[in-house]
Structure formats: C-alpha cells, structure tokens
Design goal:
The chain has about 400 residues and is mainly α. It folds into two domains: about 1-190, Growth Hormone, Chain: A; about 200-398, MFS general substrate transporter like domains (Growth Hormone, Chain: A, Up-down Bundle). About 80% of the residues lie in helices and about 0% in strands. It has twelve helices and two strands; from the N terminus they run H-H-H-H-H-H-H-H-H-H-H-H-E-E. It has helices at about 5-35, 45-75, 75-90, 100-130, 135-185, 200-205, 210-240, 245-270, 275-295, 300-325, 335-360, 365-380; strands spanning about 390, 395. Strands 1-2 form a two-stranded antiparallel ribbon. The longest helix is centred in the middle third of the chain and has 53 residues, at about 135-185. It is globular, with a radius of gyration of 20 Å.
Length: about 400
C-alpha cells in the first residue's frame, strides 16, 4: 500500500481529527452537564450512573463491529454514516425533559460514535500507510484531548444559556457539518481484498504480542485518565480547595496530554524513541502521577500529579495506535482499531470502578495505589522485533 502524498494526507486528515473532536466533546460535555444538573432534572445517583454509562456501553459492544464493517465497505461510508447518525440521534435531546429521553439520546450518540470513531482511526492509519503514523495519531489524539478540555466548559455554558436542548442542538449541528466535511474532503479508499478468517484466526490475532501489548497500554492509559478525571475534583474538595480548583487540575491533565501527543508521535517517526521506550516511559510516568495522588495528595501535588498523568498518557497513546497501524495488515485495520478502542473503553470503565470499589472497602489512597501498581505492571510486557508491518504470511510492507 503506497502512502498518500504528504499534502493530500494533511488536507484529508483534518476532517478525521474533527470527527475525533466530536466524539470527545459529545461524551464529556453531556457527562459534565448531567452531573451538574442532576438535582434539577430529578436524577438519583443510580440514574446518573446509568446515564453516564450508556454511552460507553454502546461503544463497548459496537466498536469492533463497525471497525470490521469499515474493512468490508471502506472507512469513509462508515464515518459519514456515523456522523449523520450522531447528528440525527442528538436531536432526541431537544426534548430532554426527563431521564428516559436523556438516556435514549445518550445511547444513540454512543452507538453512532461507535461507528465513526474506529473508522476514523482506520482511515488515519491508511492515510499514513506505514509512514509518519506517530505524527498523524499524535494530532488525532490531540484533537480528542481538546474535546476533553473544552467539552465540560462549553457544555456548561450552553446548558446555562439554553438548557440541554441547546447543547444537543449544537452537537447535532457540529456532527452534521463534520459529516459534510468528511464527504467532501476525504477520499474513498477502496476496501482491500481480505482473506477469510476463522474464529481461531481471530483468537490468534488478538493474542499476538503486536496487538496485545499496545492495546493493554491504551487500556491502562485510559483507565488512569478516567480515574483521574473522576477523582481529582473530589480530592481537591477533600483538601480544602475550591471546586473550581478540581476542574483546573483536570484541565492541566488534558492540556498536558493535548500538547505532548503530537510531539511524542513526531519523535517516534523521527526514530528518536522506539514504541517500546515511549509506551513504557508513558505508563511509568502515568503510574507515578497516580501514586502521588495516593501517597502525598495536597493542593500543590494535585496539579503535579495531573501534569504527570496527562504527559504520560500523551506519550503512550499515539505510540500505541501508531504501532497498531504499522503492524496490522491494512485489509483488517478497521477491525483492529475497533478492538483496540474496545480495550480503551474497558479501561475507561475499569479504572474508576477499580478505584471506587477498593476505596469503598478501604480508603481512596488504597484504591489509587492499586491502580498505580496495575499501570506500572502494564509497562512490563515488551514488543518483539522492529518490523513496521508484518503480514500473516511473514512478509512485510514498508
């Protein structure tokens, strides 16, 4: 597979970065709004938890499915269809006067994001085509992080100005505009011929070191991210800080991740760091940040820990995706990205659950300490070899 020319790849990848922004902005703006407005719309803690979870539940089940579909029919139709679906299903939120309607809107948005998120990753991988994958995934991840940063703030402002109806309306319009942009600017790359895979073939592929190691790295990084975003505000309040300080600490984390991802990807493409070195360093830095929260939480260390976690996640994430892009046969890149994103979703749910569960039985420092140990343990497995793309028959693409 020949790589797209650099100028073409830059021009056509921008709408894909926008698609990544849409899913992050949609997920985090509404999640924050639900938490802030739960009392006003009659949500119990249980109902709030369910509404926060339905978006991720959709993604856990559907991302591998839509990733495989993008291999069969091409990534562009799946991206456009997912964005159009996101725009249409967000309109349900215009009538979000009760928890049931909110839940239906969230479920629909999660299902639609399950289509365009892994397909966008697959398209980024095909545009990079074994060349500068770190740079492309660094930028893609950076735009997702931007959605995490401004999503809660912008979402809160829109809810204040016009309620959930205005927020869902803006999300619908944003997804529709991005769908048109993808339709116009992104080329349709024909699906590549694929060999027939058996269940045993699939089992072997998902247990290969070249898939398993980066997917574990992505899951561990996202687990730390989810736990930190959830518990940093609580820790800030516990140590006498204003609630705004907790939000500021989360913003420090997200900005650190936003800034480091393109740089980490670029260093990887320049061969200044290897995938193993970068992912290991990223996880160990992330684990150290979580350990700081567990051992010496305080007004200053909260921000130090947030910066460490954000930097670590920003180092590991683009290298994990770039390694998957470079070591997966292109005809099944969509399924691989969908499965890797499934790993991220499990980490996103598992990190906060682990910390919360252990904290309930013991205390929050023990929960955070356990998470730090698991993240550090995830850095132990190593990749084998330096081949960029290996096919199932032992050949290689360059």
């Amino acid at each position: 597979m020949k790589p797209a020319p650099a100028s073409t790849a830059r021009r056509t990848s921008a709408p894909l970065y926008a698609a990544g922004f849409v899913t992050a902005f949609g997920a985090h703006s509404i999640a924050t709004g639900l938490g802030a407005q739960s009392g006003n719309i009659g949500l119990t803690i249980l109902n709030l938890g369910i509404l926060l979870a339905v978006y991720d539940v959709s993604e856990v089940f559907l991302k591998p499915v839509f990733g495989g579909l993008s291999d069969r029919i091409g990534a562009k139709p799946v991206i456009v269809g997912g964005l159009v679906g996101f725009a249409a299903l967000s309109l349900i939120g215009l009538w979000a006067a009760n928890p049931l309607i909110l839940g239906l809107a969230r479920l629909g948005q999660g299902a639609a994001a399950s289509a365009f998120s892994p397909a966008s990753s697959a398209m980024v991988a095909r545009l990079a085509a074994g060349k500068n994958a770190g740079t492309y995934f660094g930028r893609y991840g950076s735009w997702k992080s931007l959605g995490y940063v401004i999503g809660p703030l912008l979402g809160a402002g829109l809810i204040l100005a016009g309620g959930f109806a205005l927020l869902f309306g803006v999300l619908s319009g944003l997804a529709a505009v991005t769908a048109v942009w993808v339709l116009v600017a992104v080329p349709h790359l024909e699906p590549l011929p694929r060999q027939r895979y058996t269940v045993l073939d699939l089992a072997r592929q998902v247990t290969e070191r070249r898939f398993l190691v980066p997917t574990v790295v992505l899951a561990a990084s996202t687990g730390a991210l989810g736990a930190a975003i959830g518990f940093l505000p609580a820790l800030a309040t516990r140590h006498g800080l204003d609630p705004i300080a907790g939000t500021a600490a989360v913003s420090v984390l997200a900005v650190a991740s936003l800034l480091i991802q393109p740089r980490a990807g670029k260093l990887r493409d320049l061969r200044r760091i290897s995938d193993t070195q970068g992912m290991t360093a990223g996880l160990l830095l992330t684990a150290s940040g979580v350990a700081i929260l567990a051992l010496i939480p305080g007004p200053a260390t909260l921000f130090i820990a947030a910066a460490a976690i954000g930097t670590g996640v920003g180092m590991a994430t683009p290298l994990g995706f770039a390694h998957l892009a470079d070591t997966t046969p292109p005809e099944r890149i969509g399924r691989t990205m969908g499965s890797a994103e499934l790993g991220r979703e499990l980490g996103d749910a598992g990190g906060p659950l682990l910390v919360g569960g252990i904290a309930t039985l013991t205390s929050l420092p023990f929960g955070l300490g356990a998470l730090a140990v698991l993240i550090a343990a995830a850095s132990i497995p190593r990749l084998t070899g330096n081949d960029r793309i290996k096919t199932d028959d032992g050949g290689a693409h360059h």
